[in-house]
Amino acid sequence: KGYAGMGIDVRYYVNTDRRNDLKTGMEVEVTEADGVTVRGAGAIADVRHTGGMSFVGQSEYTTIYL
Fold first, then answer.
1. pTM of the model
2. Nearest 5 degrees, angle CA 46-CA 51-CA 54?
3. Model pLDDT, residue 63
4. How far is residue 57's CA from residue 35's CA, in Å, rounded to a whole number?
5. Residue 43 C-beta-side C-alpha neighbours within 13 Å
6. φ and ψ at residue 32, rounded to 5 degrees
7. Which of 7, 15, 53, 60 has the fewest CB atoms within 10 Å of its CB?
8. What's the start-to-end Cα distance of the chain, in Å?
9. How far apart are CA 59 and CA 45, in angstroms?
10. Quick one: pLDDT at residue 21?
11. Which of 17, 19, 24 is nearest to 55 (CA)?
């Protein structure tokens, strides 16, 4: 499902390990593996979970849209 016509402005999306604690509206900051370099920050516009799909060797992951 796309965001066209919904009034949601999505600039970034991030794939993470399965995270059930992330909710729409939460403010997050995404960093590189070094923990210092900031890739993006903002409020979560949407959260999507997968089940049984393979992504880089992971069977379940979460995608957040900022």
1. 0.70
2. 105
3. 85
4. 23
5. 5
6. -70, 175
7. 7
8. 16
9. 24
10. 92
11. 17
For residue 65, which of 22, 34, 5 has the smallest C-alpha distance?
22
Closest by CA to 65, choosing from 21, 36, 17, 24, is 24
The amino acid that residue 1 corresponds to is: K
What pairs with residue 61 in β-bridges?
A: 17
In one-letter notation, the amino acid at residue 6 is M
Cβ distance 1 to 36 under 8 Å? no
Supply the DSSP symbol for 21.
S
DSSP 34-65: TSSSEEEEEE--EEEE-SS--BTTBS-EEEEE
Q: What would the pLDDT profile of 2-58 be if each residue is shown by its tens digit?
A: 666 666 777 888 888 888 899 999 999 988 889 899 988 899 988 988 776 565 665
